[in-house]
Amino acid sequence: MNLREPRALRDWIDCGNGLTSEVIRAAIEVHRTLGPGLLESVYELSLVLELLSSDVRVERQVEIPVSYKGTELGTSFRADLIVDSRLILEIKAVDSLRPIHIAQIMTYQRILKFHRGLILNFNTPLLKDGIKRVSVFPPEHPGSSEVK
């Protein structure tokens, strides 16, 4: 943690490049084994098994409560996967990623205060074409988001 950063930025959770690289390695192995064309749930479960076999902590279909202006709404969303309590993954099996997919994970990241997220679209001939890295920062931070 860098104590020179503004407090709001320090409150956000970052996972570093090592964890995202490990997740991408595991996702490539799943895609290499199964190929495209299956349901999201199949890839999700397979990725969980692959990550656990590498001793990476992962939670599936995590219920995240939502509040509005400080008031709990009594409802939640489900994150596909949360890796090591620091990285959110959205699993897709769609023809192409749409802007709403990116907006969705960015909203989840802001609620969780996670800097990084990955969208993994397994419905591509090469998985590298289905990976989107999404970085989000607090609204008061310059350059508050990035998609690669």
Keywords:
alpha+beta; globular; 6-stranded mixed sheet; 4 helices; 6 strands
Descriptive notes:
By secondary structure, the chain is α+β, with helices and mostly antiparallel strands. It is built from four helices and six strands; from the N terminus they run H-H-H-E-E-E-H-E-E-E. Helix content is 34%, strand content 30%. A six-stranded mixed β-sheet has the order 1-2-3-4-5-6, sandwiched between helices. Helix 2 (16-34) crosses helix 3 (40-53). The longest helix is centred in the first third of the chain and has 19 residues, at 16-34. It starts with 6 loop residues before the first helix and ends with a strand. Residues 1-8 have low confidence and may be disordered.
Unreliable spans are: 1-8
How does the overall form come out from the CA principal axes?
A: globular
Helix content: 25-40%
The N- and C-terminal alpha carbons lie at a distance of 24 Å
Q: What is the CA-based Rg, rounded? A: 15 Å
Structurally, how many domains make up the residues? 1
Beta-strand percentage? Answer: 25-35%
Number of helices: 4
The main β sheet shows up as: 6 strands, mixed
Overall mean pLDDT: 89
Short description:
With 148 residues, this protein is an alpha+beta fold. The protein has 4 helices and 6 strands, in the order αααβββαβββ.
Present the secondary structure layout.
Layout: H1 7-10, H2 16-34, H3 40-53, E1 58-68, E2 71-83, E3 87-92, H4 99-112, E4 116-121, E5 131-136, E6 145-147
Parallel strand pairs: 3-4
Antiparallel strand pairs: 1-2, 2-3, 4-5, 5-6
